[in-house]
Design a protein that fits this description.
Oligomer: single chain
CATH superfamily of the largest domain: LpxI C-terminal catalytic domain
Helix content: 25-40%
Number of domains: 2
CATH class of the largest domain: Alpha Beta
Number of helices: 9
Length: 266
């Protein structure tokens, strides 16, 4: 019998999508990345295999042994591990050796090609997840000011350009100036750095890449993102509507309201 798999990285996304699949009667096979995934996955699904990030050959063997023919990537595998912590097996070495560069899109497309070659089809991360992709809306009690709306428009243009060249999906701006651009350090560190350089009261903008492949790296925010905005002193978190996941929405909005932060999908 064909089964659906989840390759689980960091964050709440793997937990949420696993629960959503199970709510729909699908019992997924989860391959959880040891260095990244939440141990709570063991309490969510019946079949969970834990593997190091570099064991591509072993992960493929697990998926094939479990009869998985469709798989979803959920959660981040922080790219810094590829440069710092990776201990690859032969399959991973072969994959990395053949890359023209190590940009996110290049790496993930190669992984997708390897899966397809093994008869495993990679599904969009948005599969059964439409409820988590908000349309245009201001979610919070506080709405962005006119100046902040201008910063959102400005930041979106910069973020889209950064996404086009596959650098990152998040920028932090203030009064028409770029404070930080997300790179290999990830969204959270980019927010904290930008807020520090902008001396708080900054605008955080997160978008999908213009060439966004919905099979991997769909942008997402959640409760942890708002906590980082609180810690950094950001006043606005703006996301691209219809293309950005918003997880733990009620808790995130409640926390944002308590700290006077605007959350908007534009």
């Amino acid at each position: 019998m064909s089964r659906l798999g989840i390759i689980a990285g960091a964050g709440e996304f793997p937990l949420i999508i696993a629960k959503e699949f199970m709510r729909r009667g699908v019992d997924p096979v989860i391959v959880a990345i040891e260095e990244e995934a939440d141990k709570e996955l063991d309490n969510v699904a019946e079949t969970v295999h834990w593997q190091p990030v570099g064991k591509v050959g072993k992960i493929l063997k697990i998926l094939k042994k479990e009869g998985v023919t469709e798989v979803v990537f959920a959660g981040k595998v922080h790219k810094v591990r590829i440069f710092r912590d990776l201990r690859p097996d032969i399959k991973a070495l072969t994959l990395l050796w053949n890359l023209k560069n190590r940009n996110d899109d290049t790496i993930m497309q190669k992984v997708a090609d390897v899966l397809e070659h093994e008869g495993i089809h990679l599904l969009p991360q948005t599969t059964h997840m439409d409820a988590y992709l908000p349309q245009k809306e201001v979610f919070t009690e506080r709405e962005p000011s006119e100046e902040e709306l201008q910063d959102i428009e400005f930041g979106a243009k910069i973020a889209l350009e950064m996404g086009r060249i596959d650098i990152g999906q998040t920028v932090v701006v203030k009064k028409g100036a770029v404070m930080s651009v997300e790179a290999i350090e990830g969204t959270d560190e980019a927010i904290l750095r930008g807020c520090s350089l902008g001396n708080r009261d900054t605008v955080v903008v997160k978008v999908a890449k213009p060439q966004q492949d919905m099979r991997f790296d769909v942008p997402a925010i959640g409760l942890d993102t708002i906590k980082i905005c609180v810690d950094g002193g950001a006043k606005v978190l703006a996301i691209e509507s219809g293309k950005t996941f918003f997880f733990q929405r009620e808790q995130a909005i409640e926390l944002a309201n308590r700290h006077g932060i605007s959350i908007i999908a534009f």
